[in-house]
Amino acid sequence: MKITFPHMGNIYIAAKALFDGLGVDYVIPPQNNKEVLNIGTRYSPEEICLPFKIMIGNYIQAIEQGADTVLLTGSCGPCRFGEYCELQMNLMKELGYNLNFIVLDMPKDIGIKELFKRLGKVTVTSNKSMYGKTKALKDALTVANLIDEVEAKAHYLAGYERNKGQCKRILNDCKKEAMNCSNPEEMISSLRKYKDKLKYIPVDINKNPLKIAIIGEIYTVIEPFSNFFIEDKLMDYGVSSKREMTPTWWVKNMALSPLKLNSLKIKQSSKDYLSLAIGGHARECVGEAVLAQEGGFDGAIQIFPMGCMPEIVSKSILPTISKDKDFPIMSLVVDDMTGEAGYITRVEAFIDLLERRRNNVLLGS
Amino acid sequence: MKVGIPKGLLYYKYHPFLITFFNELGAEVIVSDDTNKKILDEGVKYCVDDACMPVKIFHGHVASIIDNCELIVIPRIMQLWKNEYICPKFCGLPEMVINSIDNMPKAITDPIYATSKKKLYSWAKLAGKSLNKNNSTIKKAFNHALTAQRNHLEGIYDQGYELNIALTGHAYNIYDNYSNMNLVRKLNDLGIGVITAEFTQEHILRAEASNLYKRPFWTFTRENYGFAVNAAKEKSVDGIIYISSFNCGLDSIIIELIKNTVPSFPFLILKVDEHTGEAGINTRIEAFADMLERRASDENNISTHG
To answer: What is the C-alpha radius of gyration for chain A, rounded to an integer number of angstroms?
Structure first.
């Protein structure tokens, strides 16, 4: 059995740690690029959202490298993501691939017994003891936490750095080196090293760069290919960016949601505008916009795939927040037809707008 | 008090309940006109541009009556059955409307969980309170409204036609004759009878849906998928027509599920949006009708892929 999984941001690093720790055979699909999207678009239903198409591309490329089992999380929320597994199973079968799916759903929907059964399938070829498996999981979570921290730090410090491009370089080196590690312990120490490295880069604390919050649909904000590497570009522009949504945030959110203790701060901030969870991460998006304004950010960029139902609701709410709080928010919609040049122009124009607001260029005009 | 009810989205399914309830409470109920060009244009103007056409039309209906009423009902339907949801846009509908249209009157936006009588009543209580009515009046109005809803039989079941099709899709696409361009009448004119999902029993829909790997978590999936698949399996109809609005997230899934389950059954997908040309729709319906006719009469092995 060779396990594979769809890409989503830096998840592949934590997945590598997990499968290395478990001693399970796995394939990491090649990094997302135009070709992946082309493959996905060719076979996917026309009107489905962008993540689905990229995932199909991932599977097919992973199969070419010998994968035969897909590990996927599910949900039974009102968003389309919950139906992905069913459609993808049918689609892959129709294309003639013999692919097993292991779908990890919330225990309240499939029962805790079924969840353990499915988890058991993942580790069936692992010869580790129960202790070893638990340790592998713990290590993977540590790795996910560390890489998220390194990313967040690099994105934020990019606005303050004295040597232009240093943060980006460290981040890229960090990811590259993590992938060359052969076991989780080595990976953790490598990530810690880079985390420390970021602490000691020369920064100009008087700089006061532009600060932008990235909000929106979880897949498109986390997966850099789907948002045209917007965070890398912001780093190049010398803009500090922050994104609340990370794989570790998702895990924490899922784990705490049965107790209703998940993301209390976001829920509290979104109360005035959207008081109910309507599926997907619409409420989180609204809450993050409010939090970003309170946190002294200059603006926020919302990104979501075309047709994303929850984010359409939040998109219609964001202009009110923008007006109430005098806080610029731009919505960007991405799909397989989005042209990069037009997209970048909008991001640049938005940054220009934020800069001018600071200098009060428009004052008195 | 004048209470406005927009004639959009699930109004087409639950209007007896809404109208009876507010009438019994002693309110003057103002229902917006049937959808027309002006309402659609207003909707397109106010609504966020990524939304689907039915949501835009709903915005248009709201905009057309806000000047005439003091209170407006924007149903925030969260759940109709236990463990099932509606489209996320329904759950956030009040926010979408209130943030997009200026000068909104007071609105009833309390969430509706219609999973049991008790839960639905808690919505009725809140709604009644905003009209300053006491509990006994609300209770009475609520019971009458429920009876009215139960006695009301929605659905189309044409008889006496040689060819019949199953018409699936959301209620607001099937019964809004402006957005579907009089689809039912057009089909009847072509000599095709129409049957809708309401005449298939609940347990059959459930049984069909339970064959899926994943329990469907949208009420619309169960209804449309169950009905279409059952009709195809039972061969009670000659074809299926799915009327869907462009960019509908649910339909993008449901249509694929139907296609996967009954791949060789005549299946026409009609996509409508605010730009759809009527001539194109006519041509497609006629071609589909021709195909069904030939399939029935002389060409048993004609390709079903159109």
So the answer is: 21
